[in-house]
Amino acid sequence: MIGELDADAIVGYFRGKSILITGSTGFLGKVLVEKILRVQPDVKKLFLLIRAANVESAKQRVDTEVTGREIFHVLKEKHGSRFEDFIQEKVCPLAGDIVYKNLGLDNAKLTELSKEIDIIVNGAATTNFYERYDVAFDANVMGAKHICEFAKRCNQLKMLLHVSTAYVAGEQEGILPEKPFLVGETLREGAHLDIESELNLIKETRREVKANYSSERAEKRTMKELGLKRAREFGWPNTYVFTKAMGEMTLAHLRGDLPVVIIRPSIITSILNEPLPGWMEGIRTIDSFIIGYAKQALSVFLVDLNLTMDVVPGDMVVNAMMVAMAAHSEEQAQRIYHVTSSLRNPAPYAVLAESGHRYFLHNPPRSRKNGEPARLSRMRFFRTLLGFRAYMAVRFRLPLEILRLLNFALCGAFSRRYNELSRKYRYIMHIGDLYAPYALFKGCFDDSNTERLRAAVVVNKQQDKSRGYDFGFDPKSIDWDDYFYTVHIPGVVKYLCDH
């Protein structure tokens, strides 16, 4: 049973706390750091673990990649000329990395931290779907192990919150519950996963590659192919979600009686409400479609418009994280929360397609050739991989082959045109293959646990608004068409299209 929490209790929970945050240079990490500092300036300290050679480099990364971003403008206005002093007082950059034992910190720093840390938020991960297996394993599996080992050393730890993804469910269909992964569990019947064996396989493969190939490119390709092969062997569509699932298993296996909360968001999109509606960083699944369309590089997309696109704004994910921390402090249990929208307020892909078409009709992008407003035709959508590949073969592959032969016959007269079309073909096929598991996803994430957490939050809209508190994370409050048209798509154009 979760006790009632109002905004004052949530904000009050963070007063005087020392919090270690990994992944603070990522989109979600920045939103979390900014929110804590804005609503609770009396937080004791935010220790940010940053990949850097030394503390000075770590501080520089925080200045440029975290507190120097647009999202901190509201906080800058609030503190004025004292902003830098405030950040210096509250934010402590640590040069380290979760891929290393003891987080890459020396013994003195480790001992000091273990006495001070109240809360750990592990948001560091590699989110590249087709990352090298060794790189993804180090960050997403060994990282979870190292964080857990450090958490056990912290004398006054009240909470370890780990950010995972709802898509650890793979490509399962139907209602997907908020249940933990057992060690060795897989999504393929009859298969058993041994995490230690996977680590040994990675080491052995790397040894073989180094012995047989001299190029770094060959090693990279081999490790990428290995990750994909292992993921699919056990029932996951890509290396990212496979290693995130193993990270969850590792945490569950090692945690003992540590209070652990695992947050599983679906596709995280731009900020809905505060502090900066539409702000975002990093291209998400659906944004490739928006950017490709805006830049006239994408005229066709693999997606069933009737299927549900499970998205959730970044500020709602952070609100859920902060409420979960306050609700489950010092509980000797593991909690799992789907921060998702498909069950409470499903948004079909058709909503995004329609609002996108309408937005670019009213706000046409400029042509790169002459700067004139571009005339965008409607995008073609294919509901099956077979239909998509057949269209691409007839529309692109066949003309490309004819152009290649013509180019050869005419001594390279069409080289430029051939290379241009070839690049476009490869790009569209890559996007199709990459996002097929999400664009054709037929699962629906149950969020009963999250609904109970939402119900525990007592909302006093007038009072909360006057104080600048918003801890809402109910997807039912979102009008998807309005969000995409007025917030998310303008945000993608502003923050991602020119980057």
UniProtKB/TrEMBL annotation:
Classification via SUPFAM superfamilies: NAD(P)-binding Rossmann-fold domains
UniProt GO molecular function: alcohol-forming long-chain fatty acyl-CoA reductase activity
EC number: 1.2.1.84
Thioester reductase (TE) domain boundaries: 21-321
Top-level EC class as recorded in UniProt: oxidoreductase
GO biological process, one term: lipid metabolic process
Catalytic activity: a long-chain fatty acyl-CoA + 2 NADPH + 2 H(+) = a long-chain primary fatty alcohol + 2 NADP(+) + CoA
Location of the Fatty acyl-CoA reductase C-terminal domain: 397-497
Pfam families, A to Z: NAD_binding_4, Sterile
Keywords assigned: Lipid biosynthesis, Lipid metabolism, NADP, Oxidoreductase
Gene3D superfamilies found in the cross-reference section: NAD(P)-binding Rossmann-like Domain
UniProt xrefs under InterPro entries: FAR (IPR026055), FAR_C (IPR033640), FAR_NAD-bd (IPR013120), NAD(P)-bd_dom_sf (IPR036291)
UniProt superkingdom: Eukaryota
Family: Belongs to the fatty acyl-CoA reductase family.
Annotated function: Catalyzes the reduction of fatty acyl-CoA to fatty alcohols.
Protein name: Fatty acyl-CoA reductase
Provenance organism: Urochloa decumbens
